[in-house]
């Protein structure tokens, strides 16, 4: 297994795993306009990858089986975050047959390292129940908004 920084050429992998995540979390139904969601997701990915969106993938046998992304945000400076850089982690998903092997853990740690290297002072995420223990293990804590955050 190796972790790669995803690019434009990985838009299909990004979409496929994101849609599986939505189905698994019951965030989409048969009644939803999946075609519109796919079109807009692909457009966003292509326009933002490796600019405002950093996506990492775990590769096994030339296939991306796990993914995690970081949306970069610039806010008004604050005394605790003079540069105003923050990141929102999303789209963390591992194919079911590859779970429990540490792929998501490694991806999140790489996103944290990227954040530190780029002076991002706070990262946060919304977690599924299944993911909470992983994020706590890494150092994320629940905040008043019921999000999990890590201050760097």
UniProtKB/TrEMBL annotation:
Gene3D superfamilies per record: 3.40.630.30
Pinpoint the N-acetyltransferase domain residues.
Answer: 1-152
Task: Quote the CDD domains the UniProt record gives.
Answer: NAT_SF (cd04301)
Q: Name one Pfam family in it.
A: Acetyltransf_1
Q: Which InterPro entries match?
A: Acyl_CoA_acyltransferase, GNAT_dom, GNPNAT1-like
The molecular function terms in GO held by this entry are: N-acetyltransferase activity
Highest taxon of the source? Bacteria
Q: Which UniProt keywords apply?
A: Transferase
What is the protein name for this chain?
A: GNAT family N-acetyltransferase
